[in-house]
Amino acid sequence: MAFERLLCEVLGLEVIITDIDDTLVAVGNRAVESLKQIGIEATPEDWEEKFDALKQKAKQSQEDRDKVSQFFKMFLDDAFTHLDAPHRAIYDFIRILASKSSLPVVAVSGRPEKMINSAMKVLKGIPLTDIILKPEGQRMLKAPEYKVDAIKRKNYIPKFVIDDEPTVLDAIGKEWPDAVLYKAHNGSIVPYFSKDQT
Questions:
Q1: Domains in the chain, start-ordered, CATH in brackets?
Q2: 3-class secondary-structure state, position 181
């Protein structure tokens, strides 16, 4: 893996870029358990709505701001990642895509670097060349900015990109207009065209 990664970085080779959370795995159960730890009951279907309501309250309340911080501390930790549910169809898609295209696979995730162990477990079975997790110093960067910067720093050229966030896909499509984009949603993927590709 290290030699192939070095070749990609030095030569600027095309790669397949995949996200992890809400792309390869559903994080709803991890989010529900993290919310439960701060006294908020939720389900995998409504946790985002409950969390958005908490963030709104946090604008007015220090207590709720503390709860938001506590949520992220637990959610962005390996303690509850065993609750994540894999999206097998997306795993299969990436494996087939890698086999048919002969391109290396690179995971670029907003998970902090301390979550490397759980990230590697998630990626088991995928022919992985590199994994990029978010450094502590970039913790406050929004996902689109962070991911574009991470890909550019490694000198990768995204040929195929699978992510669940339209803002990330738009940012990558703007930087690399020839990239083929796919949006992941609830375990399935659909072709996606960024604003700069239409």
A1: 2-26+85-192 (3.40.50.1000), 28-83 (no CATH)
A2: strand
Q: 190 and 182 in contact (C-beta within 8 Å)? A: yes
Residue 197 phi, psi dihedral angles, 5° rounding = -110, 0
Largest Cα–Cα distance in the chain? 53
Cα separations in angstroms, 5 against 88, 105, 106: 25, 10, 9
What is the reported pTM? 0.89
Among residues 114, 166, 122, which one has the least CA distance to residue 144? Answer: 166
Q: Is 177 exposed, middle or buried (0-12, 13-18, 19+ CB in 10 A)?
A: exposed
6-52 confidence digits (pLDDT tens): 555 556 689 999 999 999 999 999 999 999 999 999 999 999 999 99
Do residues 18 and 172 make contact, with C-beta atoms less than 8 angstroms apart? Answer: no
